[in-house]
Amino acid sequence: MAGIAIIGAQWGDEGKGKISHLLAEGADLVVRFNGGPNAGHTVVDSYGEIRLHHLPAGALREGVLGVLAHGMVIDPWLLREELQEVERQGRPTPRLLISERAHVILPHHKEMEVGSGIAKSIGTTRRGIGPSYADKALRLGLRFADLADQDIVRERLSQLEGIHRNPARPPVDLERVAQELFEFYAVFKDYIGDSLGTVSVALEKGEKVFFEGAQGTLLDIDLGTYPYVTSSHTTVHGIASGAGIPAVKLDRIIGVLKAYTTRVGEGPFPTEDVGRLGELLREKGGEYGATTGRPRRCGWLDLVALRYAHKVNGFTELAVTKLDVLSGIPEIFVCVAYRVGNEKVEEFPASLAELSQAKPIYERLPGWKEEIRGARIPEELPRAARDYLRYIEQAVGVPVRLASVGPRPEETVFLF
Ligand code: IMP
């Protein structure tokens, strides 16, 4: 049995795509268990650069089966485009299994997100994620298994249109949507099946199964900075519910974090720097959303948030990405606690009001001048960079297994 979780420890965009693609060489399955095309997992390799929205990044490795498990919401139109892009780049066709229990994102979900004002107030990706999970919770969703029955599809579409009808827009051409879903089903029906059975058999057989998280811990619907969160379970707990496997089947839980912090969309972000440092990190780190192109908000590493992420997920190891972006910064700040009013706060607050007022208390660490993209072994990293990794390790209480020093798989330093 070898279940390995790859979980974002911050607000998403930690570089999980690179880590999953790197580690999945020789894996059997890579499973997405939450979210949908709000994710933008970037892979840079010999074929070029690709941004994946549904497909697990690890599934680009030859021989790996990519599983889209039932915790996901999937946009068939976008999934098709994504597979076309994989083909256009001359990559081998990924092996794919879509859970029959996964929910379909429908055109009205995107409209509802924008029309209701949620897209603006939360700063969502406008991919229909929240409304499709809402329909699922209302017990009105359409699942991939339903696509086999044209009557069910037509009936469900008209029921949804009746409930969500917005007089401000022209009525949806339900028959056109239905026909497009039937076309999708005709092409993809062999890929739709029992992902739960496949994943549990693989684990029973001792195969190597990665669970590729999307978004990050602080965007979790229950445990994140609600309401400025996504609508799924982004933490390790999402694997049990979203892929249907007992949590005890996980041997390793890899927490992926950036060497600094970014956030895209609205919501509190205590270490955000709206001045020169934020600008520098954004430009040097290419911090623009992979799904929406929006500039990401940037700031120093937040250990209060990271310790919370460890408490929630129980990381067994850490992967620190974008360490190279910090090269040339003379002094590195790390947030060790917050000040809220006159109080020093060391636990990540649940209250949005408290978190919004939190002012970071920083410790300062020496930076390094050298560019480090060429480093491949720990000894090739400057002393201060190694000390920074050690500092994180001790502050969170979890060993750092690897540091990423560039987007390509080989631009990685394994520490053990
Ligand atoms: P939604 O998931 O599109 O509903 O967006 C909810 C919040 O999560 C917004 O702040 C988004 O910017 C953020 N978000 C969703 N997916 C990602 C991601 O993959 N990376 C970073 N932020 C994300």
Give structural notes.
- The protein is α/β, with parallel strands linked by helices and 416 residues long.
- It is 32% helix and 23% strand.
- Strands 9-7-5-2-10-1-11-15-19-20 form a 10-stranded mixed β-sheet, sandwiched between helices. Strands 14, 16, 17 and 18 form a 4-stranded mixed β-sheet that branches. A two-stranded antiparallel ribbon has the order 3-4.
- α3 (107-115) crosses α5 (129-137) and α6 (150-164) crosses α7 (174-188).
- The longest helix is centred in the middle third of the chain and has 15 residues, at 150-164.
- The mean pLDDT is 96.
- The structure holds inosinic acid.
- Residues 12-13, 38-40, 122-125, 127, 129-130, 214-215, 219, 228, 230-231, 264-265 line the site of inosinic acid.
Task: List descriptors.
416 residues, alpha/beta, Adenylosuccinate Synthetase, Chain A, domain 1, Adenylosuccinate Synthetase, subunit A, domain 2, Adenylosuccinate Synthetase, Chain A, domain 3, 3 domains, 10-stranded mixed β-sheet, 4-stranded mixed β-sheet, 23% strand, binds inosinic acid
Write the layout of secondary structure elements.
Blueprint: E1 2-8, H1 16-23, E2 29-32, E3 41-45, E4 48-52, E5 65-68, E6 73-74, H2 76-88, E7 95-99, E8 103-104, H3 107-115, H4 118-123, H5 129-137, H6 150-164, H7 174-188, E9 192-193, H8 195-204, E10 208-216, H9 237-243, E11 250-258, E12 261-263, H10 276-285, E13 297-299, E14 301-302, H11 303-313, E15 317-321, E16 331-340, E17 343-345, H12 352-357, E18 359-366, H13 383-396, E19 400-404, E20 412-414
Helix pairs in contact: 3-5, 6-7
The structure holds inosinic acid.
